[in-house]
Amino acid sequence: MREDFETLIYESAGGIATVTLNRPDRMNAIGGSMKDDLARAFFQLARSDTTLRCVVLTGAGERAFCAGADIKERADSRRTGPEYFMAQRATHQLIRGLIEFERPVIAAINGVALGGGLELALTADIRYAAAHARLGLPEVKLGAIPGAGGTQTLTQLIGASAAKELLFTAEHLTAEKALSLGLVSKVVERDVLGAALETARKIAEMPPLAVAFAKRAANAAMLAGLDAAFEAERYAAAMIIDSEDKREGFRAFVEKRKPVFTGR
């Protein structure tokens, strides 16, 4: 089975679904209908497939898994803090839904995974990275903060100190550095998608009910209190969404120049 969406491709065979983010000309950036497409792919197609045992999430091409939010689409946004706070609830509902998805999800990070792209990868149960991949949350460099769960899921995964260093410095990690931090569980020199599919096939051979409840149990510690944590993240992001620094950071990115921040 194959279904082409505006921003992704859904393919399913042998109990394994592959969801491919498909905006290679924009480095698979999150924009257009991608959030709605992801919701349809996971919560309609995948959830209704009784033969499904595992999902592999990847990006089209070799340059990017997902480069994050489409800055060109958002550079001129004039959304206020309260408007952002209310609108971002839907994003957090999507993120939480992906984390809680009943079947295991493997992210095959085939290139850069930055900002919202890394936040999307963090919803997966297992992450494999290509050797050339780069990962990071660069939002503070633009005068913003991660707003799609990254402040919470990253901290849960690698610990507060390491997460704060990445959040505060906006550093891009090599795949090997990400492996050392536990951000990914495997670095693959060639064919990261193939490696992910191989693991997916192993999972597909396991009893599905046991796997589903193992995932549910393993997620319990992270999900406890996540709603309140997301609320705090949304509030923090909303407080700076219409700041002068945020607007300057986005404009500078689009104009390919160094931003000048003023603390306002």
UniProtKB/TrEMBL annotation:
Organism superkingdom: Bacteria
InterPro entries for this protein: Enoyl-CoA_hyd/isom_CS, Enoyl-CoA_hydra/iso
UniProt cross-references to PANTHER family, sorted A to Z: ENOYL-COA HYDRATASE, MITOCHONDRIAL, ENOYL-COA HYDRATASE-RELATED
Family as reported in the entry's similarity comment: Belongs to the enoyl-CoA hydratase/isomerase family.
Name by which UniProt lists this protein: Enoyl-CoA hydratase/isomerase family protein
Organism encoding this protein: Falsiroseomonas tokyonensis
